[in-house]
Write a structure and sequence with these properties.
With 154 residues, this protein is α+β, with helices and mostly antiparallel strands. The protein is built from four helices and six strands; from the N terminus they run αββαββββαα. The longest helix has 21 residues.
Length: 154
């Protein structure tokens, strides 16, 4: 079952990337692999005082806020990890340039996919360098930050 969960999460991410290329930031919600009551969560301290967004409209609002100060924003998965208990972790690398300044920005983040009955019901964006709870949430509490930053798995 774990391999199936990884493939489901990977397919959802691929649909997200394809939608981004077309300028449709919510296209991945058209997939049967995404639950109607999907929740997008960002670990504390959140974004603009908020930590949870619901459904397609909520996610599109989050992404607009997350990326509005950048141009050429992109995200790629460096490693997929089966975290057990219907959870899949994607260790990601985001990059962009500041609007106007052109200053490059790079960040490594974790995405934890929660699945129920073969559908993604929740994704949580974790910032492992800032939040020890984030590392525990993905089952890597005993590992060093440096290992997580390099995308190493257990």
């Amino acid at each position: 079952m774990w391999q199936e969960n990884v493939e489901i999460a990977r397919g959802v991410f691929d649909n997200f990337q394809a939608g981004m290329e077309r300028g449709d930031h919510g296209a991945w919600f058209d997939s049967a692999a995404v639950a109607d009551d999907f929740e997008w969560i960002i670990a504390p301290p959140g974004l603009d005082g908020r930590s949870v967004w619901h459904g397609r409209e909520g996610f599109v609002e989050f992404l607009r806020t997350w990326t509005e100060q950048f141009e050429d924003w992109s995200i790629r998965v460096e490693r997929w990890i089966d975290a057990g208990d219907d959870r899949v972790v994607a260790l990601t690398h985001q990059s962009a340039a500041g609007i106007g300044s052109g200053v490059p920005v790079e960040m490594k983040l974790g995405l934890v996919y929660e699945l129920e009955n073969g559908r993604v019901v929740q994704e949580e964006l974790l910032q492992p360098r800032r939040c020890p709870r984030s590392r525990r949430a993905v089952g890597v509490a005993a590992r060093s930050r440096r290992d997580l930053d390099r995308g190493q798995s257990k």
